[in-house]
Amino acid sequence: MYRVGLVRPVKRGNMLRRLEPRPKGFIICERFMVNLRSFFGAIALSSISAAIPLTADAGEYQSCSHHDDAARKKKCNKAQDKYLAKNKKGTKPYKPSKISPQLAHLDEKDQNPFATDDWYLGTQKVGAKPIDNLLGEVDRAVALIKMSRYIGYLNSNGQKDEAVKLAKVVAPELKALKDLVPTLKQKASNVQSKLPKIIEKNPAIALKAPGIVKNLLADIATITKDLPGAVKAVGPLAKGSI
After folding, report:
1. Which residues pair with 20 in a beta bridge?
2. Fewer CB atoms near the end CB (10 Å): N or C, the chain?
3. DSSP state of 19
4. 8 half-sphere exposure, CB direction, 13 A CA radius
5. Tens-place pLDDT, residues 57-104
6. DSSP calls for 170-228
7. Domain spans, the chain
8. Can you tell me the distance from the alpha carbon of 235 to that of 171, in angstroms, rounded to the nearest whole number?
9. Closest-CA residue to 50 (of 61, 42, 38, 39)
10. How many CB atoms lie within 10 A of CB 153?
11. pTM
């Protein structure tokens, strides 16, 4: 009988006939080859590891791409990282179908510009109906402004057909937003004046509600400021819809 590891099968034709002892030199050679394979295997693995970076390069945001100076671009990207992290916390991407049912095809995560880092727009609910209703209206207005910029971006990057298609949907909504802005201001003022009573009925929101209402007022001011630019970006593409 031969010990396991010291025998080798001998092939005769298509069948294994018997076991023969492995020559001593063969055993030494085989062990050497095993060690050699392990050695080169380790080198191969270390080479692969070295080729794969441990960390990816910092992302570059579209909003920072206009900076020619590397230091300023890096600073811009870093600031955008912080802004994005803050805005994503506790929010969900806004669905374009809330702008118009005709944009429902963009609701899917891989199609929704508001789910991307460059165009992210998050939504949240506080838990108090007056504030949540206002949040919904302001979010829609902000989404319209941001969608207008996205349309302009598509147009300037060779995707004119898609830009025109979206512009035809967004243009009438922007026109309506012009008339809606004064109403938004009034609603925000009403919510702000009634905030103590709203908090009294919903004590759980006492800490965050004042800050959210303050941000809503700031958003409305920004909407008022940015609306003319949004109209300018979308108007020509929509061929006179505005």
Report:
1. 8
2. N
3. E
4. 10
5. 446 787 787 788 888 888 888 888 888 888 888 889 999 999 999 999
6. HHHHHHHHHHHHHHHHHHHHHHHHTHHHHHHH-GGGTTTHHHHHHHHHHHHHHHHHHHH
7. 7-51, 92-238
8. 7
9. 42
10. 17
11. 0.70
